[in-house]
């Protein structure tokens, strides 16, 4: 068969629009510079022997694999093999080696980076072109139906469609993406990524519980998805007013996060278009409060990081990703980078937390053959 192929996929930061994907709403992600790289030496066999820098033992994935057969990190690889074959595509055999550059459990979509890198390598080896949207669906099936994590399509679309100096406005109603210029350097700003190193998991119950709350709220309001409340908003019936039809409850608060978050995503896009970064920062901070107070997915540790960054001068800060740990992003003037970094490190130290890693991040390229 063909020569060795190499393919890599980045992690992602969601600038704003959290848990909106499975509610058919909006999100605004970028790719980070950290990437997971897959090298595949294809052959004509019907197994893949997979090595990872995160595990001493190789795992053999037969092409005939089915959900439940392989667990751990290799389940993401096996899931892609299974979903690709199930979609009617050929899969090569061979040996695959994985270098995982995206930290696991940090809310940076390391799972989707692995899925998209594996998928890209397999497709490159067979030479079959598959549209990026179809790739996103295949990678998501690996995660939902093989691994068993009930996640939406945000991570895969973000990783496959990302572009340097841009964010992608995703509309999950029809899974379309639109590039939006996001180039903090050009405005003397920095996007800081503050990694708490407190890991999260999406195959656990909390993510699924949020999904279930949203589905119950939509059913109680007589709409197919909470996105429909936003569309009513477009027709001059306020999406939040529509929630008045529900009595105050946990489900109603969860739904309010989705309705207000969809609005904030579109407001952020408008503010970026106006170069109004003060407003962008305000929306980021408001999003964090909504995730904390309405959606209930932040932790005290994460709140402390976001609050400290804002108190130290950040234009805005919010947790990014599915929640319950992971990373905070902060939009900061270039002159504010050191004061924010120092304040966060000092405050977390005083509170007895492990030191976070604070890095300056920029929107990078999406998945590709490099
Ligand atoms: C995780 C999931 C995504 C999305 C985010 C929250 O990253 O994989 O589908 O729901 O959480 O926005």
Automatic annotation (TrEMBL):
Q: Which GO terms describe its biological process?
A: galactose metabolic process
* Limits of the GHMP kinase C-terminal domain: 270-346
Gene3D superfamilies registered for this protein in UniProt: 3.30.230.10, GHMP kinase, C-terminal domain (3.30.70.890)
Q: Please name the InterPro entries in this protein's record.
A: Galactokinase (IPR000705), Galactokinase_CS (IPR019741), GalKase_N (IPR019539), GHMP_kinase_C_dom (IPR013750), GHMP_kinase_C_sf (IPR036554), GHMP_kinase_N_dom (IPR006204), Mevalonate/galactokinase (IPR006206), Ribosomal_Su5_D2-typ_SF (IPR020568)
Record domain Galactokinase N-terminal: where: 5-39
Q: What is its EC number?
A: 2.7.1.6
Molecular function as annotated in GO: ATP binding; galactokinase activity; metal ion binding
The entry's cellular-component GO terms read:
cytosol
Query: Mind telling me which SUPFAM superfamilies this protein's record contains?
Result: GHMP Kinase, C-terminal domain, Ribosomal protein S5 domain 2-like
What positions belong to coiled-coil segments? none
Domain of life, source organism: Bacteria
Which PROSITE patterns does the record cross-reference, listed alphabetically? GALACTOKINASE
Ranges for the region named Disordered are: 351-370
* Record-annotated GHMP kinase N-terminal domain positions: 76-161
| Keywords assigned | ATP-binding, Carbohydrate metabolism, Galactose metabolism, Kinase, Magnesium, Metal-binding, Nucleotide-binding, Transferase
The Swiss-Prot or TrEMBL record describes its family as follows: Belongs to the GHMP kinase family. GalK subfamily.
Instruction: Tell me the protein's name.
Output: Galactokinase
Q: Which organism is it from?
A: Mycolicibacterium tokaiense
């Amino acid at each position: 068969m063909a020569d060795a192929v190499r393919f890599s996929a980045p992690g992602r930061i969601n600038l704003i629009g959290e848990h909106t994907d499975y509610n058919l709403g909006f999100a605004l992600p970028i790719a980070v510079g950290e990437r997971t790289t897959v090298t595949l030496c294809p052959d004509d066999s019907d197994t893949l022997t997979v090595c990872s820098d995160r595990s001493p033992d190789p795992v053999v994935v037969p092409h005939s694999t089915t959900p439940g057969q392989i667990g751990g990190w290799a389940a993401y690889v096996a899931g892609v093999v299974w979903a690709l074959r199930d979609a009617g595509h050929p899969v090569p055999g061979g040996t695959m080696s994985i270098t995982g550059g995206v930290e696991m459990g940090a809310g940076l979509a390391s799972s989707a980076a692995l899925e998209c890198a594996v998928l890209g390598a397999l497709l490159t080896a067979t030479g079959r072109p598959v549209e990026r949207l179809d790739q996103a669906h295949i990678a998501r099936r690996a995660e939902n139906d093989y691994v068993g994590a009930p996640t939406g399509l945000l991570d895969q679309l973000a990783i496959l469609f990302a572009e340097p100096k841009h964010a992608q406005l995703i509309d999950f109603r029809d899974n379309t993406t639109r590039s939006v210029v996001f180039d903090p350097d050009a405005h003397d700003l920095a996007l800081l990524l503050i990694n708490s190193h407190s890991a999260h998991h999406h195959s656990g119950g909390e993510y699924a519980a949020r999904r279930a709350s949203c589905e119950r709220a939509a059913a109680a309001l007589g709409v197919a998805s909470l996105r429909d409340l936003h569309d009513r908003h477009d027709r001059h019936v306020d999406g939040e007013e529509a929630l008045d039809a529900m009595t105050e409850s946990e489900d109603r608060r969860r739904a309010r996060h989705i309705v207000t978050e969809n609005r904030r995503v579109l407001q952020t896009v408008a503010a970026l278009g106006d170069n109004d970064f003060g407003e962008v920062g305000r929306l980021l901070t408001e999003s964090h409060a909504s995730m904390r107070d309405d959606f209930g997915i932040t932790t005290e540790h994460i709140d402390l990081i976001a609050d400290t960054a804002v108190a130290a001068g950040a234009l805005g800060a919010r947790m990014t990703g599915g929640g319950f740990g992971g990373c905070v992003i902060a939009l900061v003037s270039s002159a504010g980078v050191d004061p924010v970094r120092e304040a966060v490190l000092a405050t977390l130290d005083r509170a007895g937390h492990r030191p976070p890693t604070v890095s300056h991040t920029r929107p990078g390229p999406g998945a590709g053959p490099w």
